[in-house]
Write a structure and sequence with these properties.
By secondary structure, the protein is α+β, with helices and mostly antiparallel strands. The chain has 3 domains: 154 residues, Aldehyde oxidase/xanthine dehydrogenase, molybdopterin binding domain (Aldehyde Oxidoreductase, domain 4); 156 residues, Aldehyde Oxidoreductase, domain 4, CATH 3.30.365; 312 residues, Aldehyde oxidase/xanthine dehydrogenase, molybdopterin binding domain (Aldehyde Oxidoreductase, domain 4). 31% of the residues lie in helices and 22% in strands. A 7-stranded mixed beta sheet has the order 10-11-8-18-15-16-17. Strands 13-21-20-19-14 form a 5-stranded mixed beta sheet. A hairpin with a 4-residue loop joins strand 6 and strand 7. 49% of the residues are buried. This is Xanthine dehydrogenase family protein molybdopterin-binding subunit. It holds the Pfam family MoCoBD_1. It comes from Noviherbaspirillum album.
Length: 752
Amino acid sequence: MRSTEAKRKSRRRFLLGGLGVAGALVVGWGIMPPRQRLQLSTPLPAKEGEIMLNGWIRMARDGIVTIAMPQCEMGQGVFTALPMLVAEELDVPLERVRIQQAPIDRIFGNMAVLTDSLPFHPDGAGTLKETMRWFTGKAARELGLMITGGSTSVKDAWIPMREAGAAARAMLVAAAAAEWNADSADCRTEAGTVLHADGRRAAYADLAEKALGSRPAVIRLKSPEQFKLIGTPQLRRDSIAKVNGTAAFGMDVRPPGMLHAAVRMAPTIGGTVRAFNADAVRGMPGVVSVVDFSGAAAGMAGLAVVAKTWWQARQAAIALPVEWNPGPHAGLSTASVFRELEARINADSGYVYHEAGEPDPMKAGVKTVEAEYRAPFLAHAAMEPVNCTAQVKDGKVTLWVPTQVPSLAINAAARIAKTDAANVELHVTYIGGGFGRRLETDMIAQAVAIAAQANGLPVQVIWSREEDMMHDMYRPAALARFTAVLDRAGRVVSYRNKLASGAITHQVLARTLGFTGIGPDKTTAEGAFDMPYEFIHQSIAHVAVPTPVPLGYWRSVGHSHNAFFKESFIDELAHAAGRNEVEFRRSLLQRHPQHLAVLDAAVRQAGHAGQGRAHGVALHQSFGSIVAQVAEVSIEDNEIRVHKVTCAIDCGLAVNPNIIAQQMESGIVFGLSAALFGEVTIEEGRVRQQNFHDYPVLRMNQAPEVHTIVMKSAAPPEGVGEPGTPPIAPAVANAVFKLTGKRLRSLPLRLA
């Protein structure tokens, strides 16, 4: 048996090992149909004058439609895109659709975020892949995890929300047909009205109550050529409130009697509270109490000062005398982290995520190209600092919080308050930047622990920017090594990539669910193993290196650094082969016409670089979407300046092209901040960055002009919120090489 076959069989055993406990899962639960996503587990009482047509939709007497919204709005536009899905299938004007936060129920669970986490190559097919996707999707329906992340909001809602709209429309048509003693086939719908072929018509509002008794035999979704709303540019429905200041973010809530809390957390990773003197601050203006919340959130020890205003709480927190135990990681540094990564990548073969072709076609090679790339830890640095408002009273908990994980938020609150999840009431606010940070529940656990000692009054906990920056869940530091062999014709006959970093999912599972993850974590190697390039031989492996540094999901996760590694090295190979970087990529994409089309669209639109400038190109697929970017760059006073970015994206059917363009611009600016400035460093166990003076983000005068091309497609929608971020760093680095001859292999990109 060849070694590659042995590895593949070993991989199958690992992936399927958890599926056959006593055979029950496969034989019993596995053959049952997946749980439905249309009706609530526990029906909600309808408000006065409203009819619940299904678990997603209710209709008022005036024809206003309210839909349940399981996703949070953090700037990605879901409060516009998801109502469009229902309005399209229900045939009502978008302006008649309202949204309301969905209750915790399994029908609102995000299936796509779990099925997309499986470590399969996108070009792969077969029984194993389909079986794993089936079981994972079915398990996701059972778990019902409500989560906004992984660029899955529209992707996951694409079928259930359209089905909800189509089912409600079919019920209304059936009700009209019954009232008219007519055939449903002779009826059609338009703008909230059922119309018969003979001219009779009835408004939805007049039919809603009668529709409750109808059970249509067939529910038909519209085909793309029938869409009237989906695919058209629509204005953001949350824009006006955000412009005029009426939008309520987490820090805006003001329940009666609310107190404020500021936190001081251990300055070293793994540090603890040794002693503190609460009496020293009790006499300060507005101070109510001092609370030790250590142990509420995993790995975070600290104190909170509760006061009548946040400024009073903050000043007292600064003045609070505290002695800290530095903990076991007081000697940790960025340098020691990278030494460990180097040692492990040298000693460990890692987990092979993808291997194709003959293992060692060295005899055909005449030139070997080797390179090593690095990426630093990164903070999320969302504009809205970490915050949560909690009230613990009479055995019940009320939360007002900007969270990406409503169901986990409720579980965290119930755990700290030692009550049942049914006793937790959750209000999800607008989020002023999530980027993955609000997938965590540490701020919720803290707020509930603090509020539990506030005599029933609500307490709003706000972290200072310094606490936020120094106690983040960081993007992992990563190391990548490449070795490629070229033949005399400049073809790559062997491509090897080995990576080393911490495993985010392993840590998240431990923090959130209490058990350590094992086995491969797709986020470590995504963007590296799942590339489209058609090398004769390729092998991509990852070495998971445990770290005490808290790791979390950061916008585009592993793609954010693996795209930089991979697309920069592709340019290195093109240079070594004496080929134009675009033509070189084209030669490797002959069986990938979608990727070719996206690359060609971006390059064609970008045209020629201006005088004194150069174009850098990068192509990357993430979260199901293919993105090509061309960055137009110059060097001014030894600083990198990005003037223009041309971006093409194939994300399947574009539900709202306006939002897609906005998300590409957002992702590019976010990615440029990281590419040019982003770096978290650790010395003596402490994160050194504290605020935007030493962790800068892109300023308005540094932002490039962005042109976005949205490719036409009738395929189901794919991710949009994150795919704009990964290609920008390599596109800029590749342009810098053209201008200077320097190959920048470490982030952030610095010329000196």
